[in-house]
Amino acid sequence: MKKIGLLCTVLISLTILTGCGGETQENAKSSESTELKTPEKFGVKLENLDSSGTLKGQYEGKKITVATRTGDHETALKEAAKYFEAATGAKVEVQSFPAGNDEEKIQLDLSTSHTFDAVLMPVANIHSYAASNYLKKLDDYKDVADPELDMEDFIPSILDLYGKYDGELYAFPYKPDTQMLFYRKDIFEDEKVKAAYKEKTGNDLTVPKTNEEMIEIAKYFTKSKNSDSPVDYGYISMGSTTNSRAIWMNREGDQMVISKDNQATVNNDATKQAMKTMMELKNYAPKEWTQLGWDEANALFVEGKALMMEQWPGLINSINDENSKVKDKIGFAVTPGESPVLGGWSIAVTSSSKEDELAYKFIEFVTSKDGELLKVEHTMDPVRQSNYERGEVMSSNEMYPVLLDSLTKGKQLVDADVPYISAQLNDILEDQTQSLLNGKQDIDKTTNNMQKKLKEEIDRAELE
């Protein structure tokens, strides 16, 4: 296989003040130490933060460094580290880098400096690291693993796509992500609107489950097509470069952009039909669609301009903002066609770690049934099926029932998941999608160009 030169303690005895459980600090039992209380999150007492007795202070004086992106990922890791340090006696240093700079910094360290013991990164990066032999196989740690680890509790599609490379487990899923359908439930539930829709189309107004239903509804609720529409646009999503491929990838069903053996598979009827649907939806989206990125598209939706939007779960933060015009008016559904693309983050142990066993216990801890509940309030949603049903977790986020359903139905990553060249392949997908959206070429030429260019890039990578 071609190797890439990728640009490439002391026991903390604290009483932690927990967020959801409402617990308070206690005075120290002595002047030298205090007792770590069992935290409560979402009404669940987290009583297995010693990994079923496998963490018992035996790593005192040792230290690991974990790398990730600045922001919520860093905050969530640091929160969990407090409890891990108390259980192990070890020290966890979390180093973070701003988005746009993190990939270069972490890849450079993995190939040269070797200071990181574990990394939390997007899935496609993790797979490239595994292909470059920068990561440890997690089966190597079976002898020290938590006997209650319960690998079958991870959402199956997520464990397979996020954790495995070439059939081997290299990482634990950490943060799941998938596109969802956000819709104006106040409009869908309005009896007058429903009656008018029925009279005009002959069909009942229901949240679309198929691509055909979405097209019909989007057309009806586009003001340029229907002056009585209560919104300007029937549909909106991110149509800008780096985002637009998701629009047709959400439509592909069982079709994959890249096969499991790293072959391009886009020049076919399924992809052409997906693109046909995208081009139809373009008629019911803003004219500036191809200029709409995350901020611009979200702003239009929370201003109440569109009936439906396909977007990543983070949109909920804008919806619930005090200035939002659609707060408490939004419903959630699986993307029509029920094959949403996935994003996500995984956490892994580096091959160069001098404390790899301790690093393994840390990544196991933060993704355990109890351990991952420490991250949820920091926008890191659960990856374990059981946690969506524990305590008040499901009711804590109105999106969670649909998020779980979407994650279960997702079949492929939005990033072309080929080691070393994911970014290059994504560029090809975006360039060709933009040429189609902007009328520079038709669907047949688009799929043909994609197939040819993807194959050429994969062949150049000399993958085995």
Automatic annotation (TrEMBL):
Gene3D superfamilies: Periplasmic binding protein-like II (3.40.190.10). CDD domains: PBP2_TMBP_like. Residues 1-21 form the signal peptide. Residues 453-464 have a biased composition (Basic and acidic residues). Keywords: Signal, Transport. It comes from the Bacteria. Residues 440-464 are annotated as: Disordered. Coiled coil: none annotated. PROSITE patterns: PROKAR_LIPOPROTEIN. Belongs to the bacterial solute-binding protein 1 family. This is ABC transporter substrate-binding protein. It comes from Enterococcus florum.
